[in-house]
Design brief:
single chain, two-stranded parallel ribbon, 23% strand, 2 domains, D-Maltodextrin-Binding Protein, domain 2, seven-stranded mixed beta sheet
Length: 226
């Protein structure tokens, strides 16, 4: 039997972008807040009498988000006198978020700190937060999320996942090598698309864009090689 457990909020929010409309578009056209959900699907492995929880994240080693997870693990260890061990797999070593969710479902992993990409793999309802320019402030985001949260959480529960914490880590932007003032400027460029998100890829193509599906760990080298 698998059990769902509760946990602690571990991330914080940053202020949004400010500036003129042209600066905003030139920097890249903003999609929406990059949200992090913290999941814990508890079916831990015993190890010499200890409870081992395997958690995956895309957070780079040594980043503030990775350090917070390390701190969380230490607090769990201290609170249980070493009986609970949080084993973290950072920097995408356990795969992309869609891979991580699949591994949780089959018991290879137990927990994950993920973005909306991972959330949408569990429940497509979470894709609502991908809508460009849906909100323009954290206040608007909070208002919308408070209304939708009961239904969204039920979708996760129906898939046997439990949301432990939800936090905002900033806005998501499009970054390009050439100036981009409006969405149509992107049509002449190849741009990143999450590998495995076939619906979004087809939507981009129908709009005349040129998405390149990539795993998150391949994005940097693809930018370097063109």
């Amino acid at each position: 039997m698998k059990f769902l457990a509760s946990g602690l909020p571990i991330f914080w929010r940053r202020s949004g972008h400010s500036g003129s409309e042209k600066e905003w578009m030139n920097c890249s056209f903003r999609r929406l807040a990059s949200l992090v959900g913290f999941f814990f699907f508890f079916s831990s492995f015993p190890m010499e009498g200890k409870t081992v929880i395997k958690m995956a994240t895309l957070a780079p080693v040594g980043s503030p988000w990775h350090n917070l997870l390390l701190e969380l693990g230490q607090k769990w260890r201290d609170a249980t006198e070493g009986e609970v061990v949080l084993r973290i797999y950072p920097a995408g070593v356990a795969g992309d978020e869609r891979d991580v969710i699949r591994k949780i479902r089959i018991g290879q992993l137990h927990a994950a700190a993920v973005t909306i990409e991972g959330l949408a793999e569990i429940s497509r309802d979470m894709s609502v937060f991908y809508i460009p320019m849906l909100v323009d402030s954290f206040e608007e985001l909070d208002a919308i999320r408070n209304i939708l949260m009961p239904e969204l959480e039920q979708g996760l529960t129906d898939s046997e996942f439990k949301l432990l914490a939800w936090a905002d880590v900033g806005w998501a932007y499009w970054f390009t090598r050439e100036p981009m003032y409006e969405p149509s400027d992107l049509k002449g460029m190849r741009h990143f698309s999450w590998a495995g998100d076939y619906a979004s890829e087809q939507l981009w193509r129908k709009g005349g864009f040129h998405p390149v599906p990539l795993a998150s760990v391949d994005v940097v080298i693809s930018l370097q090689t063109g």
